[in-house]
Every structure is written in structure tokens, then in C-alpha cells.
């Protein structure tokens, strides 16, 4: 009984393996000998590959540079470009994914295997081709390609984790700051304006106190999504801290920044936020804003300080409103500092 | 070497069939491709010898050697190898000899195939 189960397990594994081997994607056979070309083509098709053929180096190069092509079998000696030269060229050519290269050499020629591998080949085989050996080596190639793909996926995931806030999926503080710096550089270089808003949900503490922190988190998520959906796709939403959000609006001068902010106030005012399956609440926003063209010498620090003070005033004046500030806000406060002295 | 080849079959069927998975029909197809390729290369070689184009002699010899090896044709492989070497060594006399050997081996293969292999 136990043995029987093991057997079916093995069978299932084999079947899965075979399924994987079908639809293996494109493979290039670059070979000037028509007999070898035909032989390889037939077998590779049987094994589930989509075969592309090239009779010389130039043809091979054109196919090699295609993004979707991940495995190539290259003859060492070919008219035009030879195998090692193709390897070398491809390694210098930037492709989004790795291409696995197998070089073919004649058994009785003393071509230096090291030379081939140094040129950038991953593997080599001698002719006449042993098909069983080729099949095994292609499985290695497939494994390497899958490893590379998984690595890229993991890198993307990590980079997402490192740049976004896990609760709201908005950019984290460090990342939104670097976006602001980029826009500042562009503003100084090309004079393209941008707006900056600091938005804060009004009476958010009450939501947490009344419905619990989970409900508060959920409302914050809903708020970020609502804001994202009402901005242009090149605008950036970041979490500054707590329930304070930074909104970066590339290309917007102070006028457009004001329009966008007013629209957001309106949308939030007219939206119900769910705090439990049966309960929804109303919410309002306070927003402080400025724009690069509204400051004499915009820098990340004085931009943040300006929107922070504008937000503070919006709260003090009764919430659910927008305050736009320029340089005067800063001068004002500096004077106050002087006064204190 | 040539003396030995006369006694041997021009094609090592068992070896080549093992390599291609025992498919007789496919072997016949490959042999047809080979014969076409051979005629083309043979024409190139005749011209290359006349023009003393040693690079082309070496290249054509090399390519035929590979095709012959793939189909386990030992006599043709040997003659192709001699051709490649003659090209590399710029040996015109050697190339002429190799051309004759190629022709002879090719005729032997054809006879063998026509008689039903």
C-alpha cells in the first residue's frame, strides 16, 4: 500500500516534470550545418521548445537580442560571426533577462574550452551531439533561468517593501522625500513646477478611540486609496507619519495645486468610510499646500516646513479646509523667532 | 586508413540510430539533407581549389566534417577532415587528394544506400 502510494507520487512528479517541459519557450539553434540544424530542430520541438534557426552569425545575433529568447545553442565555427564572438557581444548587450548560451565544438579540434567559457558561454558540448546529454544540459539551463527569474522577483518584492509603507501601500517617508528632491532638481533644471500638499484626517484620534485601531488602520487605507484614485497617475502619495500624508504633484503650479487640493477635500467630504461591516463614518481632511514656484528658493526643508505650517493653520482655523502658503509663512516665523529673542 | 574504410560500411547505422532515437524515417530525411549539402559543398570546394581560396577550403571541409560526424559517416568524415587540414596548411595537392577521396566516399555511400543500406 505504502509502496503503491510512493509509485503514484513518483508518477505524478514525472508528469509534472513533463508538463513543465512542454511550452518551454523559444530556443535558438545557430548552426551552419543543415544536418545538425534539422536534427536539433526536430528533437527540441519534441521536447517542447519553440525553435528559431539561424544559418550564420548575423542571423543568430538578430534573434539572440530578442527579450523573450532565453536559451541558445551556438556553433563555434559559423560564417559571419563565430560562436565565442556572439557570446562576448551578447554579454555586453544589456538584456532585461539572462540568456543561457551553449557552445558547440567539433571533438577533434583543439579549440580552447576556456576561451569559449571566458567569452561568456555557460556550457559547451562536442559534436556529434549526444541528444541525451543535450536534454540533460538543457534541464540545467532551465534551472538556472528559473533561479534568475525568482531572484528578480524577490528583488522586486524587497524593493517594494523597502520603499512603501506596509499598511497604506503609500510611499514611505524616505522614498517620498527622494521624489521631492527629484522634482526639485527638475524644477531647477527645466523650470517645471510642482505642488506639495500635506494632508491630515480630521479628528482621526476619535476614530481610533471609538472603533479601535484596526478600524483606524482600515480608514487610513481607504483614505489613501481614495486620494490615489483622485490624483493623476504620475502624482505621488507618501506617508509622512501617523495619519499625515504628503502628496507630490509634478507639473502643477500653485494655482493647479490649489484646485487639486480643493477637489480632494470635496471627495473626502462626500465619501463614507467603513469602520465595520455595518458601520460607515464621515470624515474630513485638512490640507496645507505650497508649490515650488511659490517659494523664492525652494528646498526640501522649506517646502516641508511651509506645508506643515499651512496644515497647522488649517487645523486651527476649524479643519476641513485648505491653506496655501508661500515664503511669507517662513519669513513670518523667522520674525517671530526674532521677536522672541 | 582508406584501405580500412573499404571494408567498413560507409555509415554506422547502429550508432547514428542510437543517437537520434531509432527513427529510421528521420534518418532517411537527414541523409537526404546531407546529400544536398554535400553537392553544394563539393561545388564550392572545386571552385575554391581552382581559386586557391584556402580559407573557403578549410571552412567547407570543417562544415562537411561536422555533418558527416552527425550521421556517423566515418569515410566521409575522414576525407572532410583531410580537406580542412589541407586548407589550414595551404596544401593545394592535399586538397586535390581530399576532393578525390570525398568523391569516392560519397559514391560508396550512395551505392550503399541504393542497395537498401
Describe this structure as you would to a colleague.
The complex is a heterodimer of chains A (341) and B (117). Chain A has 341 residues and is of the alpha/beta class. Chain A has twelve helices and twelve strands. Chain A folds into two domains: 2-159, Rossmann fold; 173-340, Alpha-Beta Plaits, CATH 3.30.70.270. Chain A has a five-stranded parallel sheet with strand order 2-1-3-4-5, sandwiched between helices. Chain A has a five-stranded mixed sheet with strand order 7-8-6-11-12, sandwiched between helices. In chain A, helix 8 (204-211) packs across helix 9. Mean pLDDT of chain A is 87; it is low at 334-341. Chain B has 117 residues and is mainly alpha-helical. Chain B has one domain (2-114): HPT domain (Four Helix Bundle (Hemerythrin (Met), subunit A), Up-down Bundle), CATH 1.20.120.160. Chain B has helices spanning 2-7, 13-20, 24-51, 54-70, 74-88, 92-114. Chain B starts with a helix and ends with a helix. The interface between A and B is medium-sized, with 20 and 21 residues.
Would you kindly provide a brief summary of this structure?
The complex is a heterodimer of chains A (341) and B (117). By secondary structure, chain A is α/β, with parallel strands linked by helices. Chain A has helices at residues 2-21, 34-46, 57-64, 83-92, 113-118, 131-163, 173-190, 204-211, 213-229, 254-269, 300-316, 327-340, and strands at residues 26-30, 50-54, 71-75, 100-106, 123-127, 194-201, 236-241, 244-250, 272-276, 279-282, 285-291, 322-324.
Please identify the structural class of chain A as seen in this structure. Answer: alpha/beta
Spatial shape of chain A: elongated
The amount of helix of chain B comes to over 70%
How many individual helices of chain A?
Answer: 12
The total number of structural domains of chain B is 1
Q: What is the architecture of chain B at the second tier of CATH?
A: Up-down Bundle
Catalogue the unreliable spans of chain B.
1-6
Total E-strand runs of chain B: 0
Summarize the main sheet of chain A: 5 strands, parallel
CATH topology of the largest domain in chain A: Alpha-Beta Plaits
The string of secondary-structure elements of chain A, in order, is HEHEHEHEHEHHEHHEEHEEEHEH
pLDDT average of chain B, as an integer?
90
Amino acid at each position: 500500500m505504502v509502496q503503491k502510494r510512493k509509485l503514484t507520487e513518483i508518477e505524478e512528479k514525472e508528469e509534472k516534470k513533463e508538463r513543465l517541459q512542454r511550452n518551454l519557450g523559444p530556443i535558438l539553434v545557430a548552426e551552419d550545418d543543415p544536418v545538425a540544424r534539422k536534427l536539433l530542430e526536430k528533437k527540441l520541438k519534441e521536447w517542447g521548445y519553440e525553435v528559431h534557426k539561424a544559418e550564420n552569425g548575423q542571423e543568430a545575433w538578430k534573434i539572440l537580442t530578442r527579450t523573450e529568447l532565453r536559451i541558445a545553442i551556438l556553433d563555434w565555427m559559423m560564417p559571419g560571426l563565430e560562436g565565442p564572438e556572439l557570446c562576448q557581444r551578447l554579454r555586453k548587450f544589456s538584456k532585461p533577462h539572462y540568456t543561457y548560451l551553449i557552445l558547440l565544438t567539433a571533438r577533434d579540434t583543439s579549440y580552447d574550452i576556456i576561451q569559449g567559457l571566458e567569452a561568456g558561454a555557460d556550457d559547451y558540448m562536442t559534436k556529434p551531439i549526444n541528444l541525451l546529454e543535450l536534454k540533460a544540459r538543457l534541464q540545467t539551463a532551465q534551472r538556472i533561468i528559473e533561479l534568475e527569474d525568482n531572484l528578480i522577483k524577490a528583488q522586486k518584492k524587497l524593493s517594494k517593501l523597502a520603499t512603501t509603507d506596509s499598511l497604506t501601500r503609500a510611499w514611505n517617508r524616505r522614498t517620498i522625500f527622494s521624489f521631492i528632491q527629484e522634482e526639485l532638481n527638475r524644477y531647477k533644471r527645466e523650470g517645471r513646477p510642482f505642488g506639495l500638499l500635506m494632508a491630515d484626517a480630521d479628528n482621526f484620534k476619535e476614530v481610533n478611540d471609538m472603533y479601535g485601531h484596526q478600524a483606524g488602520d482600515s480608514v487610513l487605507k481607504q483614505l489613501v486609496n481614495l486620494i490615489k484614485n483622485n490624483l493623476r497617475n504620475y502624482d505621488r502619495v507618501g506617508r509622512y507619519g501617523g495619519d499625515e500624508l504628503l502628496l507630490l504633484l509634478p507639473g502643477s503650479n500653485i494655482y493647479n495645486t490649489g484646485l487639486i487640493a480643493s477637489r480632494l477635500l470635496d471627495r473626502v467630504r462626500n465619501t463614507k468610510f467603513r469602520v465595520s461591516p455595518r458601520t460607515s463614518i464621515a470624515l474630513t481632511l485638512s490640507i496645507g499646500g505650497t508649490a515650488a514656484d511659490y517659494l523664492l528658493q525652494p528646498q526640501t526643508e522649506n517646502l516641508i516646513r511651509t506645508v506643515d505650517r499651512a496644515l497647522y493653520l488649517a487645523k486651527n482655523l476649524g479643519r476641513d479646509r485648505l491653506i496655501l502658503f508661500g515664503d511669507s509663512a517662513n519669513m513670518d516665523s523667522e520674525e517671530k523667532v526674532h521677536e522672541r529673542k | 586508413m582508406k584501405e580500412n574504410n573499404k571494408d567498413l560500411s560507409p555509415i554506422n547505422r547502429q550508432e547514428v540510430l542510437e543517437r537520434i532515437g531509432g527513427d529510421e524515417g528521420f534518418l532517411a530525411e537527414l541523409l537526404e539533407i546531407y546529400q544536398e549539402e554535400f553537392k553544394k559543398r563539393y561545388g564550392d570546394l572545386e571552385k575554391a581549389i581552382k581559386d586557391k581560396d584556402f580559407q573557403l577550403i578549410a571552412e567547407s571541409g570543417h562544415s562537411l566534417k561536422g555533418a558527416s560526424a552527425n550521421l556517423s559517416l566515418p569515410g566521409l568524415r575522414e576525407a572532410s577532415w583531410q580537406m580542412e587540414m589541407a586548407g589550414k596548411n595551404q596544401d593545394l595537392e592535399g586538397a586535390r587528394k581530399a576532393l578525390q577521396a570525398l568523391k569516392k566516399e560519397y559514391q560508396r555511400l550512395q551505392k550503399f544506400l541504393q542497395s537498401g543500406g
